Structures are given as C-alpha cells and as structure tokens.
Amino acid sequence: MRSAGELFEELNAVDESTGIEAKRASELGKSVMQTVIAFANEPGLDGGYLLLGADWFVNDKGDTVYRAAGLPDPDKVQRDLASQCASMLNIALRPEMQLETVDGKTVLVVYVPEVDVTQKPVYIKATGLPRGAYRRIGSTDQHCVDEDLWVLRGESQPLHGPDLSILPDARMDDFDPAAVATYRRERARINPQAEELAYGDEDMFEALGMLRRVDGRLQPTLAGIVLFGKPIALRRLLPMVRIDYIRVPGNEWVQDPDNRFQSIDIRKPLLLALPQAEASIIDELPKGFRLPEGQLQSVQEPILPRKVIREALANAAMHRNYTLHSPIQIIRYSNRIEIRNVGYSVKEPAQLGTPGSRLRNPTIAAVLQDLHLAEAKGTGIRAMRRLAAEAGLPMPEFHSDRYANEFKLTLFLHNLLTEDDHAWLRSFAGSTIGADEAKVLIYARATGAVDNTACRDFCGLDTLAASLVLRRLRDRGLLAKQGAGSRTYYTLASAEPLEILDTRQPELPLGIPLSANGNGMHAPETDPAACNPELATLPPELATLLATLTGRVGAEALREGIRRLCAWAPLTVDQLATFLDKDRHYLRNKHLIPMVREGQLRFRYPETAKHPHQAYVASGDESTSHD
User: Residue 551's pLDDT is what?
Assistant: First the structure.
C-alpha cells in the first residue's frame, strides 16, 4: 500500500490521475462511494487510491497543488466508510485503510482493489443497475449505461448486440440486390469455400444475422438494413444512417458564411457506402511517387495508406450507435481528416490498440471483417498506427467523449517534421529540443492545442511521462497551460490565453463574475474587462423571457428559451446555466446535447467538441457578429 506522501507527490506531478482521487473533508459523502465503486469496477486499472482530508489550490503557473488539510474526526470517517462499503453495495467491499500524518495533518489513505470479474458490476443496492454502478473514466467517476455492464462482466460482446434488433416496419424487399451481389462477389474472392455462398438469399441472410425468425416469420434486423438496405428503405426506416463527406477549406471549421464547405451525402447500404466514402477521400488526397522493387516505372499512391482510411471508416461503422439519429461525418481539412460517429468508445480510450475488441455491433462487424473491410480481433487501431508510422505520418488521434456520446478519429496528412517545421522550431524553441517536445510543439501549432491524451497518442508515452513533457515545455515558456484537472490543455505561449473553468473550484461562467439582478436571478456584471460586454445586458425581450423561466419550468418552455438565447449570441453551457439559473450538468445532459442531436442547436466549433470556447448556436443562425 502506497503512502500518503507518495500519493501527494504523484498528484502534484500530473495534470490528472486515473488511479488517485483526492477529497476534501467536506466532500466525504456519496461522491466517495462513487469513487470506491468505480475503482472496484474498472477493468485493468488494478484498483485505486482515495486520499481523504486533502485540499488544493491553483498556483501562479496554473498547476493544481495538492496538500494535506486534515480530517476533523478521522476515526469516525474510517468507521463510516467501512460500514458503507459493507452494507450499501451488492457485495461487501473491504478496502485497505490507514491513517497518516502529513505536515501535521491527519489524512486517510484508502486502497480499493479491483474486484474479480465474477463479482462485477459492483453497484449501490438502493439505486440498482445500471445507474448504481460506476466506472473510472480518466480522472472521473461515470454512471454506467447498459453497454458498460457487459464490459465490466468481461464479455467481448453481448450475446445479442443492438444490431440484431428487429425493425418492425422493414420488409424482405427492402434489401438492395446490388449490395447482395457485392457481398457474394467479394466473399467468393476472399474465401471461395465460404459455406453461406451455397445458400439462397434468405438462408444466407438468416445465417449472417440479417434476418431473424420471430413467431415463425423472417424479419429484417437493424444490421440487415444498415448493410444491405435500399437507399429508399434507409430513408424510411433509418433517416440519419448516412455518411456525410464534408470538404472544409483551410484547417478550421468554416465561420465565414460566404466561404461555405462542400458536402456529399452518401445514403446507401453500408457495403456500397464504405467504398464510395473511401474513394471520395482518396480522390482528394495528395499523391506520392514510389518505385516498386524490380519495376522500371513509378506508381502514384495517396500519402495516407488506403488501408488506414478503410479501417478508419470501418471503425466508425462498426462502433457507431445506430439507435441515435446522427450521420457519420468525414470532415476533410487541408492538414487532416476527422471521422466522427455518434457513440463513445466502449473500450477505454487508453486501451485502444491493445489486444481484444469491444464491439457495439458484433453482427455488422462480423460481415465487414469477412469482407476484409475491417481488421479482425480488435487489431484495426494497431494496424492504423503502424501504417501511419511507416508512411512517415503522425499517429492517428482517438478521442472518445462519453458526455457528448461521440467518437472522433483524426488522421493527419503531413509529415510531422517537415523542413518548414524544423525552421519554425529553431526560431520558436531554439536548438535544444527533444524529439517528444518537438512533436508536441508541432502538434500544438497545427491544431491549436495539445493535451495529455494527444501527447500519449503520438509520443507513445504514459500519463505521467506525457505530463512531464508538457510541463517542461510550459516551464520553458513555450506552452501556456489552460484549464485544470481533466480539462487541462496547452496552447503555444505566443497564442492568446484562453479562459476555461477550473473544475475543482465553484463553477462560474467563463470570465463572468456573478451578481444578483432585480429579478433575483444571477446575471453577468458589466465590467468589460471581465466579460464580453455584449453578454452583459440582455435585450429587453430576452430579459422578460428569462423572468418567466425561474423555478420549475417545463422542458418545452426551457428549450425554447435556450434556443432564443442562442439565436441572440453563441453561448457556453456556463453562460446559459447562469442566465437560466440551472445546474450546468443538468442543462448540458438533459437539454443542450439532445437539442444538438435533434438539430435545434449546433456547436459553434463542431470540429472540436471540447473546444475551450465551445458554445451553442441556434440552428439556422449564421450571424458572426459575436465572434
């Protein structure tokens, strides 16, 4: 068992910690039990430590500094925690606990081991499953959803994935003959002895899970329509199951209404849509020349290997959540390609590329793997990384957001260290710069920001090593730290600092102090140095509207208020929470995210869900006067 001193030392060396959670004496309540459950549940974490009786502050460098604050009654805390672990959960937990003195203050160190897979999931009995169970995601404790339960139980996939669900209004004639012919042709090319090729279409579809027998009748499944459905059937049954290829000039999302992006909507069965999407990407990629061994004539090949593109597209198709109405998006910038799908990664992002697969849609995945449109046995991400490295490109970047329920894969189209990059590095950082530090600076230059996750991805470092690289560059004056805790990121020091909430402190809007107005609501002060003066005084009609939205308000009225506010100006979740006097997490999860999915709102920066200036704009509003 580690000592309190070691735990404080590690917390002060990293921006966030997956395996250590510090709690103030005032926080010893249900949040402690949530962390205990998360540490006991999380696969591969090997448990974790709670440090009770801690405190923290942000120093002048922007680092969160942890220190001992002490517990008013440490023996009672120890007894209460032991009692709760033994009685509140579906199984009794016996964490290791020891009291220690640090700087004259008594703190409690609690080690919670990971329980055996046969005992998972651990959950609060009174709440039940799935919400009574928690997982440790990064440095946070997250409520479980149904998909988490089979992950915790160690299943590589559920017995029946959601893609085997029946679509009641689907018919046998909704299958596209061209997609069926494509499957038979490609399957025969790959494996001429494949048994299902000898079957008739109905028997083949039943064998593949495209049809299921219900009350003696064969009915199409979700997988069947997604993979083989005619375009008209997809529009009728699954209107948002399509792939959008969006071409954006430059390296950032278009804000200029006179310079709009170009978009291609691909609404076809997946077996035909994926090759078209792949071809659309490759057609616009820069080409490189290669002289194959033993050949006299060079050949042109895209700078990004075809297999990387194919695997990235298959990954989005296999892992997207088809129960939510949102298309797969391919956003092509000048220097990168972003592929987005609704549905966070079922596999912990830090474990991506390790052996083993967690499939949201195992039936769809099996067909794509049989046709070699996807790597088998969870090796696709490892293959993408290897092929990108062989092509001299940066490693692909993977970003999973459980709150937004989205997964983003970024493929970079430039060599990480070109001659221009070397020249810029020499002028910006001098000659004494390490390889990892150079990658971090180039990445921050190309994308505007870098965080611990990105640093781990392209440098191959662990969390602690990545934190040390980032802080070293910060201490040299080359990077500027923004945010705190799990929301920490860094920008180039020459860039204008961006304000972001310290999630460890009482939450206020970005740069806007609070005061009470005549309606008894919290409203922004008008100090122009502290906030955008345009947000300081609402138009009279909006001020009148807000006065009607105090207290308990119906969802429809609240959403109309949100829409009208966001039509006036792009607003962050914190600004909206202040105007509406609502909890930011409630507002974001129950209203803002659903409104984005339903098309009532859009992100101000859709290319980066966690953009430090992320705000919500009413759909259809193209004003840029507040930018």
Answer: 77
Residue 624 is predicted with a pLDDT of: 37
Q: Are residues 228 and 320 in the same domain?
A: yes
CA 188, CA 195: separation in Å to the nearest integer? 10
Regarding whether 447 and 359 lie in a shared domain, the answer is no
Residues 166, 97, single domain; the answer is no
- CA–CA distance, 225 with 210 (Å, rounded to integer): 8
R_g of the chain computed on alpha carbons:
26
For Cα atoms 422, 427, 428, give the angle at the middle one, nearest 5 degrees. Answer: 95
pLDDT tens, 71-115? 999 999 999 999 999 999 999 999 999 999 999 999 999 999 999
Q: Residue 368 in 3-state DSSP?
A: helix
Torsional class of 612: left (φ above 0), alpha (ψ -120 to 50), beta (otherwise): alpha
Regarding whether 197 and 77 lie in a shared domain, the answer is: no
Query: Which residue has tokens 């129950």?
Result: 590
In the listed set 94, 128, 152, which residue is the last one of a domain according to the structure?
152
Structure tokens at 131: 């919400």
CA 107 to chain CA centroid, nearest Å: 34
Read out DSSP for 539-607? -HHHHHHHHTTSSS--HHHHHHHHHHHHHHS-B-HHHHHHHHT--HHHHIIIIIHHHHHTTSEEESSTT
The tens digit of pLDDT for each residue in 478-512 reads 998 887 666 788 889 864 433 333 333 333 233 32
Mean pLDDT value across residues 48-75: 91
Looking at residue 610, what is its pLDDT? 59
What domain range includes position 350?
156-288+298-415
- Using DSSP's 3-state secondary structure scheme, residue 369 falls into helix
What is the reported pLDDT for 294? 62
Predicted TM-score (pTM) above 0.70: no
Spatial separation of the C-alpha atoms in residues 578 and 507, rounded to whole Å: 10
| 292-326 b/e (C-beta count within 10 Å ≥ 16 → b) | eeeeeeeeeebebbeebbbbbbbbbbbbbbbeeeb
What pLDDT, on a 0 to 100 scale, did the predictor assign at position 349?
A: 61
3-state SS class at 377: coil
**Domains identified in the chain, total number:** 4
